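Appendix B, example 12.
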Amino acid sequence: MPEESGIFEFLRWMFRHAHESNISFITPSEVESHVPSSYELNINELISWADVEKDASAWIGNEMQWVSFNQLHMLYRLARELGDEYLMRYVRLLMVSDHFYYMSTKHGAPQDVHNYFNPYYSPYRAYTLYQSAVHRLLNYMVKVHGNALVMKRLASIKLPSELAAWVKGESFSKANCQSVQYTARLITINHPELSKGCLQ
């Protein structure tokens, strides 16, 4: 968000005035220790504030978002396995949910909202730029740590759910199968199990 919007100045003064007025802030998990609960609520599905669906589809609702999400999972695990704090810093930047939000390809009013906040003006441009960042990080890994070590660390990583199911030979729709193959191809460094064909 641009500085000229005034949001940073607002936040700077908001907390100061809150402190002067004896107003404190607590997290949702801390509320439990301050307010007794009257009953237990079971929520079996992801919920959010976004779009008409109020679920996670604003961030992982299409193939571009799923590919990027799976790549992020791989990058995070690789950064941890390599113990590279410099790399981890940039992987965390790729974790910002806005990156996935900008890749939305919904229709109607929900997509109008996505487009309004999208600085790239296109979900496909957002995806292309994200892929560029992913490949830059992968190139950095290989350059700094060597291809052999990166491949060794990658082989020890537990695969994301979609890739893991594919490796086990579970049934996939054609779209999901293509997504899995595309994810494996874009990662460029082969996991031993990712050379197997997609099982239908």
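The two ends are 45 Å apart (CA to CA). Residues 57-195 form one domain.
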